[in-house]
Amino acid sequence: MPAQVTERQYQGQVHEQSRQLMSAWMDELGRAEAEGVATGALMISGNCVELLRACHVLPMFPEVTALQNAIRKKSLPLILKAEQAGYSSDNCAYVKADIGLFLEGGMGPGKPIPYPTITVCNYVGCNVYVKWFEHLADITGSKLFMLDVPFARTAEPTEQDIRYVTAQLQELIALCESVSGKKFDIDYLREILAHAARAEAGYARTKELCKRHPAPFDAYFDAINMMGPINVLRGTREAADFFDVAVKEFEGLVAQGLGPLSEERFRTVVEGPPPYPFYKSFRNLFAKWGAVGVASTYSTVGGIWEFGFRHDPRRPLESIAEQMLRENLTNRSIVARYAQIKRYVQEWSADALVIHSIKSCRLFSAGQGDMREYFTRDLGVPTLMVESDLEDPRYYAEAQIKNRIDAFFESLEHKKLVAAAH
Ligand code: SF4
Whose C-alpha lies nearest to ligand 1, atom 8? Predict the structure, then answer.
């Protein structure tokens, strides 16, 4: 009987600094209305947060509000409120939790989460975004800006695609100037993009370190500590400095041969967002088997940095457009996602693929049945698929999920023992 795997009780600088940075941003949002600072709601995926920052518009992210409420186990009453107002049970639960928050009066004038001054729908890949942000603008009375980003159809974005997006970015600059009352300065944007590129390089380096055995952190569950700084705070000096700290901390763990668990028995690649209302319980189901996520697609939802793309201060608007068009998970086809996962499995030496399918998110879950077939049958990668939701706790059936996870790792363990005996 192998020794029991335990979690290292480790809350390092990465966890603490990420918490502090995100709290400071939330505090800033809470003060925005009183201080007369313009705010802009944005989507996480392929966002142009640097541009808003350069225009002195404080970014806010409804997805982050929704997931924070889910982690705090506050999402269900909000979802129910939205369903009472007519949202269907199979709508994206992020949307319902967010709309429910408005209807409950948890957002608005004088609240820690203010109404946005402008609502920027950076539509990348998921068509739910369009309706969500239309509703958001309607409820809050904020100005709606639809930023249409064509779906990636070619390996690299075409010149026409880049021109089409940069022309819209120019229009967005004009709108931001009108609400912030401040003139746009391209050199300030270049400065912000240099900070962004430094953060991107740092995040990529932390992921690179997960190629080591053991991986110094769980690239699915612990990546959440880095997703705030990279997606929300990208473009700030603080976020860039944060990644310097993260790299140093993880390099230190690599040097000591330490990972997040007492033993790394299985290396997994994880596809799909986590079940935020049951984050820790879900994590525990893998931890007890010594399974560590060494790479994940969800951590690239806002941007894919580990394969080399960086914002370029010499081509400010063009590189923002390129990132929105191509360098994020949601604006790509599922076949491109196959290629991304395949690389992870091979280059990060993974034993298995875990697919967490999200009941209310079609963007992620459509096609995952075929994905499982492809990895299992065509590539011979053991693949586990479990289903729940990223926001709605009603879809998390722990006993069922646990049974599937246990059966999967039991079989992987058996295969390992058989292979070792030959
Ligand atoms: S359907 Fe999925 S990708 Fe689209 S907004 Fe909802 S959670 Fe995000």
Answer: 361
> 3-class SS at 175?
helix
CB neighbours (10 Å) of residue 31?
Answer: 13
User: Residue of the nearest CA to atom 2 in ligand 1?
Assistant: 361
Closest-CA residue, ligand 1 atom 7, reads 361
Q: Which atom of ligand 1 is nearest to the CA of 132?
A: 5
Question: Residues 267, 413: one domain?
Answer: yes
Q: What are the CA-CA distances from residue 167 to residues 170, 173, 323 (Å)?
A: 5, 10, 15
355 three-class SS: strand
Give me the domain span that covers residue 113: 30-182
Please check whether residue 82 lies inside any domain of the structure.
Answer: yes
195, part of any domain: no
- For 170-203, how does the pLDDT look when each residue is reduced to its tens digit (9 = 90+)? 999 999 999 999 999 999 999 999 999 999 999 9
87 close to ligand 1 (CB < 6 Angstrom): no
Cβ(133) to ligand 1 under 6 A? no
DSSP per position, 226-237: HHHHHHTSTTSH
What pTM was estimated for this model as a whole? Answer: 0.96
- For residues 155 and 299, membership in a common domain is answered with no
Torsion-angle region of 73 (φ positive above 0: left; ψ -120 to 50: alpha; else: beta): left
